[in-house]
C-alpha cells in the first residue's frame, strides 16, 4: 500500500482532514498575536514539563481518542501549528477537549493565536475549520487500531507477560498432558511473539 492510497478525505466533507483507517489527522495553523511568541513558548515549555503529569495522562485517557499531538512555533515566531491524530468524529474530538483539564491547557496555548474564541465558545469549531489545513498525505502505522484497542492490547500483554513469568506457567508448559496444545502452531506463535 502506498501512502496516498490509504489516506482518504474525512467522512465529514465540511471538516477538513484526512483519515487512514480509524485514524484522522488534524492540523491547525494560526498567526501568533504580535509580541506573544515568548509567552507562547513559555506556555509550551510548561505544557512539555506537565506532559509527565498524571492529570494530563488521565485526561488523555478520558478523552480516549487522541493518538498524539504536537505544537510548533515557526516563521520567525509569527505562526503556530498544532497537529494531532485522533479516532472518531471531528466534532466529538473538539468537544472532548472542553470536558477535561486538557481544555484549559488548550485555551492557554491558543490564547496567543489571533482570534481564538476559547475552547468552550460555540464558535470554536468554525474557528478551527477556518485555520485547519488537511495533510497532502496521511499514513498511520496502525490504521485499524483505535486508541482504546491499543490500551486494551497493552493491558492484555501486561497480564500475559505476568502469567509467563510464573512458575505455574512453566510447569504447565512442561506437563505432558499439555504437550498437544503446546505443540500447536498457534501456541508456538504466541510464545514466539511473547518473547520478541
TrEMBL record:
<feature type="compositionally biased region" description="Polar residues">
    <location>
        <begin position="1"/>
        <end position="11"/>
    </location>
</feature>
<protein>
    <recommendedName>
        <fullName>EthD domain-containing protein</fullName>
    </recommendedName>
</protein>
<feature type="region of interest" description="Disordered">
    <location>
        <begin position="1"/>
        <end position="20"/>
    </location>
</feature>
Amino acid at each position: 500500500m502506498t501512502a496516498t492510497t490509504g489516506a482518504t478525505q474525512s467522512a465529514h466533507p465540511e471538516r477538513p482532514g484526512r483519515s487512514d483507517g480509524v485514524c484522522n489527522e488534524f492540523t491547525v495553523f494560526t498567526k501568533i498575536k504580535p509580541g506573544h511568541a515568548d509567552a507562547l513558548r513559555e506556555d509550551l515549555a510548561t505544557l512539555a514539563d506537565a506532559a509527565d503529569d498524571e492529570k494530563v495522562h488521565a485526561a488523555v485517557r478520558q478523552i480516549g481518542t487522541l493518538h498524539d499531538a504536537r505544537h510548533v512555533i515557526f516563521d520567525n515566531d509569527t505562526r503556530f501549528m498544532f497537529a494531532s491524530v485522533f479516532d472518531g468524529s471531528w466534532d466529538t474530538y473538539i468537544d472532548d477537549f472542553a470536558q477535561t483539564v486538557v481544555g484549559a491547557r488548550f485555551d492557554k496555548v491558543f490564547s496567543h493565536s489571533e482570534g481564538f474564541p476559547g475552547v468552550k465558545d460555540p464558535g470554536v469549531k468554525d474557528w478551527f475549520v477556518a485555520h485547519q489545513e488537511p495533510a497532502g498525505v496521511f499514513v498511520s502505522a496502525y490504521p485499524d487500531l483505535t486508541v482504546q484497542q491499543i490500551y486494551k492490547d497493552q493491558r492484555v500483554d501486561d497480564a500475559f507477560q505476568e502469567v509467563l513469568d510464573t512458575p505455574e506457567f512453566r510447569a504447565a508448559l512442561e506437563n505432558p498432558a499439555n504437550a498437544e496444545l503446546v505443540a500447536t502452531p498457534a501456541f508456538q506463535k504466541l510464545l514466539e511473539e511473547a518473547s520478541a
